[in-house]
UniProtKB/TrEMBL annotation:
Organism: Streptomyces finlayi
GO MF annotations, alphabetized: copper ion binding
Protein name (record): Copper homeostasis protein cutC homolog
Alphabetical list of PANTHER family matching this protein: COPPER HOMEOSTASIS PROTEIN CUTC, COPPER HOMEOSTASIS PROTEIN CUTC HOMOLOG
Xref: InterPro entries: CutC-like, CutC-like_dom_sf
Family indicated by similarity: Belongs to the CutC family.
Amino acid sequence: MSNRAVLEVIALDAQDAVAARAGGADRLELVADMAADGLTPSRETFAEIRSAVDIPLRVMLRVADGFAAGDVDVLVEKAREMRAEGAEEFVLGFLDAEGHPDLVAVERLVAELNGCRWTFHRAIDRAADRDALRKALADLPGLDTYLTAGAATGVDDGVPTLLAEASRTGMPGYEARILVGGGLRLDHLPQLLAGGIDAVHIGGAARPGGWASPVDEAAVREWRAALDG
């Protein structure tokens, strides 16, 4: 088994996907509309990316900015469409008004995914109680990753939480992998890697020209080299 750390890159289209794959990305998170912090892409975009690259793709299930689920029926239909198109991995995560996991929405989507692997995204960083959230979700089928910065404000403030949670890996509620993203910089990596974290997620860091620019292969390669030491 490879000990290589996982590098996940946000891709908006096939051009992004090809550049990220060439730079050494292990997996892509597929989203649309970063002005709304990432929504579900179209079936056509998924199909184009799936044809362009051979690495795993995690598809965002989200139809509105923020961490409320919104219309769950629409989310379920999006999941059904993506499954029909061949998607096998997903990203989702919703909170209620009190900051607790919205189990009604999450469980309906997980049932639709029927065993597919999925990431609970950065909604955890806005949760009223991270530990309680993890334990509430622990037995849901397919959950294998938490995308988190450790804090709502980003990795700078979240490092202590990330390291503390990494030290609990394998304990109840902490079986899922920690995927660090949200204000992540290259200089964070040594401490995170030393603390046992082995997966990172980049979006803007893969686009030195900003979100209006495509993924830059050289930028991704720099992250790949830093992770590989």
